[in-house]
Every structure is written in C-alpha cells, then in structure tokens.
Known about the structure:
Blueprint: H1 4-30, H2 35-43, H3 48-59, E1 67-70, E2 73-76, H4 81-94
Antiparallel strand pairs: 1-2
Helix pairs in contact: 1-2
Amino acid sequence: MPEPRAAAREKSHDGQFAALDRMATEQGQKHNLDATKLQACIKAQQDDKVKTSVHEGEALGVEATPTMFVNGEQVDGALSLSELRAILDRALVQAGETPPAHPAPAPASTSQPGSR
C-alpha cells in the first residue's frame, strides 16, 4: 500500500492533470475547435511518461520549473544569463577546463531628456 504522502501527492497530480484538461477544453471552446475531436484527443492522451518524469523529479527533490543540475548542483528557477554563465564557468573550472571568454554586455541605451 502506498504511503499516505505518496497517495496524496498522486491525487494532487491527478487533480492538476484534470485541471489542465479543463483548461484545454475551455481554450478549445474559446477558439471554436471541434469539441468532439478535442475530447477524443484529451481522452487518448498517454500520460504515463509525464507521470514517470514527475515522479523522477520528485525523487530528485525538484520543486521548481525550470530546474537544472550542473555537475550535481541543483539550480532552481529562471536565471539571468550572467548567473547561468557563472554556474557553467564554475563547473568547467571544477572539471579542469578553462571557461570561454564572454562578450561584454551591451550598454543600456540611455536617452537624454529632450533628445530623439
């Protein structure tokens, strides 16, 4: 018998998948799609690979989208280009490689009052 937390998580995921199906149906109606064909498509979904991926992510401690792993370091959430470069450069150094040179950031355009 699955542990209570796992069962609750599974029920939560099922609710999330059902909510996505409802949203797809609403969008289909909004855009005048053939409701019968859309429902057939929704019912024919094979979500086993998605569920497997979700379970694998949970086992790894993934709690955000996007999440990346760089040399075993978990990196959660969206990053700026400079933050991502720093993480990748650090991984290269740890692997004994020299990080590439990065182009200088483009200067922010500043307009003077009254200039066009």
